[in-house]
Structures are given as structure tokens and as C-alpha cells.
UniProtKB/TrEMBL annotation:
<dbReference type="GO" id="GO:0016887">
    <property type="term" value="F:ATP hydrolysis activity"/>
</dbReference>
<dbReference type="GO" id="GO:0051782">
    <property type="term" value="P:negative regulation of cell division"/>
</dbReference>
<dbReference type="GO" id="GO:0005524">
    <property type="term" value="F:ATP binding"/>
</dbReference>
<dbReference type="InterPro" id="IPR027417">
    <property type="entry name" value="P-loop_NTPase"/>
</dbReference>
<dbReference type="Pfam" id="PF01656">
    <property type="entry name" value="CbiA"/>
</dbReference>
<keyword id="KW-0067">ATP-binding</keyword>
<dbReference type="InterPro" id="IPR002586">
    <property type="entry name" value="CobQ/CobB/MinD/ParA_Nub-bd_dom"/>
</dbReference>
<dbReference type="InterPro" id="IPR050625">
    <property type="entry name" value="ParA/MinD_ATPase"/>
</dbReference>
<dbReference type="GO" id="GO:0005829">
    <property type="term" value="C:cytosol"/>
</dbReference>
<protein>
    <submittedName>
        <fullName>ATP-binding protein</fullName>
    </submittedName>
</protein>
<keyword id="KW-0547">Nucleotide-binding</keyword>
<dbReference type="GO" id="GO:0009898">
    <property type="term" value="C:cytoplasmic side of plasma membrane"/>
</dbReference>
Length: 326
């Protein structure tokens, strides 16, 4: 299951991503946590100290390795240099699974222990000003998009991505890569306006979008979110002393998380799991091709000097039944 946490800066994406990762891990699920946010805080939120977080390998610095591996023997991709973030897999490409060892995890993922359970953590690396501008070619989140487009994931396997709701994800198609997207919104006009914008982009692509209200205090906050968001409001989370203790650098055991917040995480899990029955690998593949052709036309062909439309394998559908040469 591919799950994104998006929202306005400071809304609580990283906090809720990390709580959700802990919740999944505590039930024995297999989890890959991905930090694709502008502010790289997922490692610390999962309990890493400063030195450990700083030592995490950046996916953005390992794009060549990732591309070289994923390309495999795909005859439509002559060399890794012509692979852009949206280049879709085809016959001969190497696919990835949540539960395996592979060169991409070796290079980019690190194990993080959470009260005895272990998850994999991957980070894009810190964003620079150039990453936030027009530089699609070097986009940090491009590595994550390639990962998601080559990933074959089943139920009980989770990829949780902490990301920003910025224009980068809309240009590339990143926002269509998830079984469900949790938009974290504080009960403020700004929080709600990010939701509206996301909803508008998502509408044409069948994106499953649910809002998680965060830092909700009392009746007025709840009424505000209900009135502004309606049925898309899945659950709300209030102020958590457990989170505050984590912020002080003393993460309590996860089993001590407040009951009400534990129930909220359970709601998220149930909502995410329910989307599995709706998963449509053909549509998933079609959308990655759609965004690839769009990016090829707008900058990719010019940038690589190749006809990137020719990378599309028309008969390929990503899915659990795909078998590839490794
Ligand atoms: N439910 C909560 N209870 C207590 N503190 C919270 C809660 N949610 C978020 N916070 C605190 O609010 C701050 C911002 O949260 P967080 O870093 O998760 O937001 P973010 O959306 O990831 O921000 P950024 O855009 O900077 O990455 C943090 O200090 C966090 O500990
Ligand atoms: Mg964050």
C-alpha cells in the first residue's frame, strides 16, 4: 500500500507520518518510510539522533544508481542518462518489492528500530532553492517517483511517504502514485485552502484523498473543519503529550501513545487498507505514461536529446502478476 501524507508546511505531516509508521510497525507490517518533505525531519521523528539522521544516504545523490538498476535490460531505455523521473518500466525493467533486499535499498535505505520492530527509512535529501524552482531534471522527489513507479506492493506491505503539497508533485504526477493520500490540515483557512487546491488537482485523476485534522482543540475547531471539508474529513487529532515528549528527545514507548490518537491511527489504517480492493494497476500504469509523455514534451526530450515517448512499452502493465528477468 502506498500512502502519502501531504499538507501545508508545519501542519504535522512528519509527525503523523511517523506515528502511522510506528503504528504499522507495531502490528508487524512491513514498512518502508520515505522522507520526501522539504524539511527532512522524518528520521528524527522516528527517533534518530542528529548524527544518525545526518548519516542517512540521500536518494537524490544516488539517482544514477537507481536508474541503472531499474533500467535492467529494458531495450527501450538505451542508457540511464535518458531516464527521467517519469520514465515508466517496461519489459526488461527491474521491479522492486517492499519485502526484499535489492541494490536500491542497499544504497538508499537504512533500518530504523522502533520498540523492537524494524522499518526501512529512505530520504530524498535536503532541498535547495533550485529543487523548488523549475529544475525538473534534478528534482529530488524524482527518485521517489521512480521508486513508486517500479514498485509492486501487496496488502500488509506499506510505503509511507512524508511529502510537501508543492507544485513539484503536481507537475510530475507524483500525487497520483498513492493508494490513498492523507492531507493534514490544521483548523485554519490556510490549512483548508491547501486541501481545496489539492482536491482540484486530484479530481481528474481519481486520487483517493482524505483529510486528517491536526492540532484540533475543542468544538469550534472541529465544527470549522466539518463545515469546510465535509465528507473528506476522516479523523482529527488533538494535541499529543506523547508527541511533545518525542520533541524533547525522549520518545516514550509507542504503547504509551494516548488512546484517542491510537484510535485515530487505526482509522487511517482501515481507510488505507480499504483502498486495496479498488486498486487498478492498468490505470496506475496509464497515468504514469500520461505524465511521462507530458514531461517528455515539456522539458525531457530537449534536456536528454532523446525521444522519450519511445521509452513507453505499450503492452506493459505493472502489477503483482508481472514477472521480470532479474
Ligand atoms: N498532534 C500534535 N501534538 C503535539 N504536537 C504536534 C502535533 N502535530 C504536530 N505537532 C508539532 O508541530 C510541529 C510541526 O509538526 P511537523 O514537523 O510534523 O509538521 P510538518 O507538516 O512536517 O512541517 P514541515 O512542513 O516543516 O515539514 C512539530 O513541532 C510537531 O512536534
Ligand atoms: Mg515535515
Amino acid at each position: 500500500m502506498k500512502i502519502a501524507f501531504v499538507g501545508k508546511g508545519g501542519s504535522g505531516k512528519t509527525t503523523l507520518s511517523s506515528l502511522f509508521v510506528r503504528h504499522l510497525a507495531a502490528t508487524g507490517a512491513h514498512v518502508v518510510a520515505v522522507d520526501a518533505d522539504i524539511n527532512q525531519h522524518l528520521g528524527p521523528a522516528l527517533g534518530l539522533d542528529e548524527a544518525e539522521a545526518a548519516a542517512l544516504p540521500a536518494m537524490g545523490d544516488r539517482l544514477s544508481l537507481i536508474k541503472e538498476h531499474l533500467r535492467g535490460s529494458n531495450p527501450r531505455i538505451a542508457c540511464a542518462d535518458t531516464m527521467i523521473k517519469t520514465t515508466p518500466p517496461g519489459e526488461g525493467s527491474r521491479l522492486l518489492r517492499v519485502r526484499e533486499d535489492n541494490p536500491v535499498y542497499d544504497a538508499c535505505a537504512r533500518p530504523v528500530e522502533l520498540d523492537g520492530d524494524t522499518v526501512r527509512l529512505m530520504v530524498t535529501g535536503p532541498f535547495t532553492d533550485a529543487d523548488l524552482g523549475v529544475s525538473c531534471y534534478h528534482s529530488k522527489t524524482g527518485a521517489v517517483e521512480l521508486f513508486l513507479n517500479h514498485l509492486v506492493d501487496g496488502p500488509d506491505e506499506y510505503v509511507v511517504v512524508d511529502m510537501t503539497a508543492g507544485s513539484d508533485s503536481f507537475a510530475s504526477g507524483m500525487f497520483t502514485r498513492f493508494d490513498i493520500t492523507f492531507l493534514v490540515a490544521e483548523p485554519t483557512r490556510k490549512g483548508v485552502s491547501v486541501y481545496r487546491q489539492y482536491k482540484e488537482y486530484a479530481a481528474d485523476y481519481g486520487v483517493a484523498l482524505k483529510v486528517v485534522g491536526n492540532k484540533v482543540q475543542g468544538r469550534d475547531d472541529l465544527d470549522f473543519l466539518r463545515a469546510e471539508i465535509g465528507d473528506d474529513l476522516l479523523v482529527t487529532v488533538g494535541h499529543s503529550n506523547w508527541v511533545r515528549a518525542l520533541e524533547r528527545g525522549r520518545p516514550p514507548r509507542f504503547e504509551l501513545l494516548e488512546d484517542i490518537n491510537r484510535r485515530a491511527l487505526h482509522r487511517l489504517r482501515t481507510a488505507a487498507d480499504a483502498t486495496y480492493a479498488l486498486r487498478d494497476w492498468e490505470r496506475y500504469t496509464r497515468q504514469m505514461v500520461h505524465f511521462h509523455l507530458k514531461n517528455a514534451g515539456s522539458w525531457g526530450n530537449e534536456r536528454t536529446g532523446a525521444d522519450l515517448a519511445a521509452q513507453v512499452d505499450p503492452s506493459f502493465v505493472l502489477g503483482e502478476s508481472v514477472t521480470t528477468l532479474v
